[in-house]
Amino acid sequence: MERAARLARTVACVMLAMLFISCGETATSGPSNELLIVGYDREPDTMNRFSTHILEDIQSCIIEGLTVTDEKMQVQPLLAREVPTIANGSVVLRPDGRMDVTWKLREGVRWHDGTPFTSADVKFTVDAINGPAWNPESTDGFDRIASVDTPDPLTAVVHYKERYAAYALQFVRGALPKHLLEGKDIERATEYNRKPLGTGPYQLKEWKTGEYVLLERAPHYWRGDSLPKIKRIMFRFVPNTTTRVNQLLAGEVHVVALLPWDRARDLAQAKGTVIAKTTGNAYEHVTLNEKTVPAFRDVRVRRALLMGIDREAITKQILDGLAPVSHGPVQPVSWAYTDSIATWPFDLVRAKALLDSAGWVTGADGIRAKDGVPLRFTLMTQAGFVVRENVSQVLQRQWHDLGVDVKIQLVDGTAISTKWFAGEFDAMLHWWQMPADPDLLLFFAADRTPPAGRNINYFVDSTLTRMLVAADREVDQVKRRALLIPVQQRIADQVPELWLYNVTRLDAVPASLKGFKGNPTNTGIFWNVADWEIRP
Amino acid sequence: MTAIAARPPASPARTALLLAAGIAAVALLLPVLAPHAPNAIDLAARRVGPSAAHWFGTDDLGRDVLSRVLHGARLSLFVGLASAVVTLVLGVGVGVASGWRGGWLDTLLMRATDALLSMPRLPLLMVAAAILEPGAVALAVLVGGTGWMETARVVRADVLALRERAFIDAVRASGAAEWRILVRHLVPNAAPTIAVAATLAVGRGILLESALSFFGVGVRPPAPSWGNMLYQAQQSMTTAPWVALTPGACIFATVFVINALGVRLARSGPEVRPA
Amino acid sequence: MLQAIPLLLVVSIVGFTLLHLVPGGPLDVYLGSPNVRPEDIARLRRAYGLDQSLPVQYGAWLVGFVRGDWGYSYTDGRPVLTRLLERVPATLELMVSALSIALVVAMVVSLWRATRPRGAGAVEALSVAGISLPVFWLGLVAQLVFAVALRWLPSSGRVTYDGAGLADRLRHLVLPALVLATVHVAAWTRYLGASLDGVLSAPWMRAARSRGVPRSLLMARHALRPALLPFVTVVLLDAALLVSGAVVTESVFAWPGLGGLFAEALARRDYALLMAFLMLTSTAIVSLNLMADVAYRWIDPRLRAT
Questions:
Q1: DSSP A105
Q2: C1 burial via Cβ count (<10 Å: 0-12, 13-18, 19+)
């Protein structure tokens, strides 16, 4: 026992000493042009922009595209001198349906290792993506490219086999450095995927797995030696949202990226922090599966369900007023958006009358039924996504008032994809991140049910399908918009799905941060990071 | 030890029965006491602190925390206790058989236990979620069926030591039947360890239930359980701490009661009975 | 030790089947992106060999595993072994410190409680609290108190930046290690306490006390040893389970250990990584449980005969 007691005393002393050393005010410093620390929700899988599955926030600081979408989702030239259009003669439509796009590259752009960035890199990228050896996330658009010509180092002519409306975004993810990757297995090019070579304002200094990525300003950025203004940016990976909030409150990070709406209020007490709102190009909605629930095939039922939802109350209360109600699949940030469409505001009386007229009569248990079949379905949504769990319970309650019986089913984030892809659900609460180019065909055309597309409403409307096909074949944006307006009107009238709110991105940033603009696309908010500056 | 000198006279069976009856009564009666409907959403009164209308405040959707805790009691108590029973039956059974018999049976049972311990619990539960309809019984079986291995190993360790004790030899020498030695002498002497295993099983069962709803195996919203209430309260820890306080206190109280009863039961058990 | 190989084989077959039974697959992450088309999915399925039958996939995995080729992660394309090894130092750091703290505290508290019945109530209440509070809760409250309110310690992470020095590492270690230790202390003191009670009330102990053996000697020589068996069992078992990381603690404290990697691998259905975890856990459990059997004989000489 004496020995044990002595041991216990020693251990206690050592522990106290350790606490003594380690306690004391934590050394935290505020945001500065020396260092900006970002609390980020997840670690990237790879720095290769063509392979990654998450938002390209970090990658876009290092690797630049030929074009970039700005905060208004307008396509702007970046490594290209201009965006090719029919008007400036860089897009040529051939009578046989083929199409040529000429990219003029900016002069004087160099990779971070000093090698000039040329059209050969563009050609190499297309060949690598279309080649058999590498499996990028998507080959969309690239598979329509027949070949690339490089008449000179600053010109790349892309020959498309068929027309492709979204050509301007073809190289939004940049290009691969030919001199580094030629002859290498890109699939396993660990060095590039972990420490990519780019042309952007930052280069990767250090990637501590599971902890952080540290970016450091690249020497001689092509836009001028004075850029970027912030020397180093550190992305710390913190999966737990509450921990990220605590980190900001403790002064350990300066930015909390991708803040859930219901957590913004936690940061109200954080001095010097503002919540930056970026209207998104995604929309939260309820998908109604017409294949499994015959009742959804009646437009009156769909309209009644939408009118039975008090969306204003949901966005105001659960989202703390941080995201606006959405009335259709095309979001206000899109060039194709129109607000001259039918909307279906909360109206319990009209909703009930619609269901009555459709033959769904309230039974003794308060649930409506038609021909002995009760109006009942299961609402599937992602487990662990608190806002969705809450919204689904409010929907359940509000539809209950309508006489509709809804069960909630929570499914984990990966299994849910398998289920919706197979069409194994009644209704689903989720969002779509829309491409910068509004590809409505994929989501609403009758023949685009999975696996061919994402029409998981299994919505069949031949009028709409015809209109969608016509719009998809048009390359000229002005003409295309004219075609897409009636499309949106038809969709809003038919209510194939129930629109809830715009997925507005929230980032808690220092009040002293200047130059922040936000971005609604997958490119992320760091697209103009070179212009960011801390100015108290 | 003074506490041991003064043994309570109650027999273990009677105490256990009383406990079961008491908890059943509580679980049945509690929902009656609820001042509000547990799922009545009031978006205008979200995260309101304790008041006359809502004694323990309201949650994220403006529902009365007290009413939800009272309604959640039935499920949480059932899952906690029933899963503990499953854990104890399997754990004590395997542990005693393995420790008492030894030899090839011990090797077989312990390696099987190792194999089950190696199986990651979450994928197992996710597979179950895909096959089973969530319900209280399914939950209890899943939680108990995937959590008895530690109990088995600990009980085995206890039995190994007891087997070599002199009084067991004495009982054996007197020609007592094997089952009688096990039931009358061995298990009662392992009671303190078993009681601890029971306490742990109840606490872990109640908490694991909430983790299960994360994978869609748990109760479906909006049905309340202490575990999922506590889990959801994480969202409003700083802004509405009362949402977590009530379910947390209930879990603590339950585990505390089970622990106290377990300790008493273990001490009231026979220690060395002349055969 | 010979039992270990057939056991690992059985575990790998059952585990492989189980993992593939979990709904979803490694390619599901592609479905959410609208510009990924069915052709892309089919191409990736072929490329990763996911279009082959399960026995064929298992066979390929087993052959590779035996040869030391544990495959490539579906998530980022790097070798599985690389991904595991880079997480080992952080895992060991947290595990060893949490377990040592827990071990010392549990033994000291249990012995103290056994000899001084008056403190028993408080110890019991604290350990019950440790059992009934979820780890994530404990961790977040600790952050709010020590990092946000007092600013004594960093809330999370393992270092401020690489090369920040030993003091910085220690400061980051304190909260996660204490929280992880607390959970184990709660359970361990209960087991050790129960065994000590049992031993102390045994007739031969009472006899020893009446003979006038000093209390401290009584505890160390006579009481502790026989009470250790269940305790050693549960300590070694918990240690074995921690070898593959502490999922919740690591997530709350953004600790870069194996637990976080496991959570990520499970979410992405990264079969190659998950199989490696299965083998790692299994090996740890078998070896530490066999070690426990050896320890029993050392602790209790009577068991050596059998």
A1: B
A2: exposed
Joined tokens for residue A68 = 């970039």
Q: What is d(CA A92, CA A102) in angstroms, rounded to the nearest whole number?
A: 9
At a CB cut-off of 8 Å and minimum separation 6, what does B87 contact? B144, B147, B148, B151, B197, B198, B201, B205
Q: What is the identity of the amino acid at C235? A: V
Q: Residues 110-139, chain C: which have Cβ within 8 Å of B?
A: 114, 117, 120, 124-125, 128-129, 131-134, 136-137
Selection from A334, A330, A342 nearest residue A302 by Cα: A342
Mutate which: B114, B151, B228, B258, vs C, most C CBs within 10 A? B114
Separation between Cα atoms, residue A404 and residue C231, nearest integer Å: 56
Q: Find the helix or strand (DSSP H, E) in which A247 lies.
A: helix A241-249
Say if residues B253 and B182 touch (Cβ distance below 8 Å). Answer: no
C217 and A CB contact within 8 Å: yes
The residue of chain A with its CA nearest to that of B232 is A386
CA dihedral C171, C173, C175, C176 (to 10 degrees): 160
Nearest residue in chain C measured CA to CA from A234: C161
Whether the upstream peptide bond of residue A438 has omega within 30° of 0, thus cis, is no
Nearest CA in chain B to A386: B232
pLDDT tens per residue across span C58-86 = 999 999 999 989 988 888 888 999 999 99
Q: What is the pLDDT of residues B220-265, one digit of tens each?
A: 888 899 888 888 888 888 788 888 888 888 888 888 888 888 777 7
Report CA-CA distances (Å) from A501 to A325, A389, B80, C203. Answer: 4, 15, 39, 73
Phi, psi (rounded to 5 degrees) for A251: 75, 20
Q: Which residues contact C106 (CB under 8 A, 6 or more apart)?
A: C184, C185, C188, C189, C192, C231
Query: Tokens 């530490």 map to which residue?
Result: C288
The Cα A305–Cα A395 span in angstroms is 10
Question: Of A157, A179, A160, A202, which is closest to residue A64 (Cα–Cα)?
Answer: A202
Cβ-count burial A72-90 (b if 16+ within 10 Å, e if not): ebebbbbbbeebbbeeeeb
Q: How far apart are the first and last CA of chain A?
A: 62
pLDDT digits (tens, 9 = 90+) for A472-511: 878 788 888 999 999 999 999 999 999 999 999 999 999 9
SS3 A419: helix
Q: Distance between terminal CA atoms of chain C?
A: 18
CB contact (8 A) between residue B254 and residue C132: yes
Distance from CA of A405 to the nearest CA of B (A): 13
How much is the pLDDT for A357?
95
User: What's the rounded Cα separation, in Å, for the pair A524 and A65?
Assistant: 13
